[in-house]
Amino acid sequence: MTQIKTIADQTERKIRTISEPEKVTMYHVGLNSNCPVHVVTVGGQTFPRNSEKVTGYGSETQRDKIRGAIVEMRPGQLEEIKKSANYKIVRSTRGRRARARVYDTRCRNYRPHSGDMPLSQFLYCRPVSDMENPMKEPDLPTIDVTLAGPPKQERRSRK
Question: What are the 10-residue block averages of pLDDT along the chain, 159 residues in total?
């Protein structure tokens, strides 16, 4: 009898120690149409220019294009994205083919160029509750709600 009681006490303790699930919020994230790259990952979150909502099955499949993507984010994740976006830049190059790449200003071999643009001016991140229906409006205005800020640069000694 005492053995059964101790097992019950142990399971009770385990049940009490399980924490509450974190509150997640739905966000509409993406890149505005002026960005020279199509997909960027910042702070562990992917920001696409466009994505697709797939419905139907087999020959009835429909792909509706939407601007950006709808994602779930934890409360602290938005701050991580803002911090990381401050150190990212977009560099466009012209040559035989036009290319654009994203660089981190904290990298040891990063050298600033005149055409570097802060990545944060192309990102947007809005709570879904602020929008009427994000899935049915592919041409959402994105410039007014950005994570804009100038890119930060760290000084390093050249050894």
Answer: 55 55 84 89 91 84 86 88 91 78 90 89 84 49 46 57
- 3-class DSSP assignment, residue 16: helix
pLDDT of residue 9: 57
| Nearest to 74, CA basis, from 20, 32, 146 | 20
The rounded distance, in Å, linking the Cα atoms of 112 and 90 is: 11
On whether the pTM is more than 0.70, the answer is: no
**How far is residue 140's CA from residue 68's CA, in Å, rounded to a whole number?**
9
Q: Rounded distance, CA 100 to CA 110, Å?
A: 15
- The burial class, CB within 10 Å (0-12 / 13-18 / 19+), for 82 is middle
- What is the rounded CA–CA span in Å between residue 143 and residue 84? 20
Burial class (CB in 10 A: 0-12, 13-18, 19+), 61: exposed
| pLDDT value, residue 39 | 93
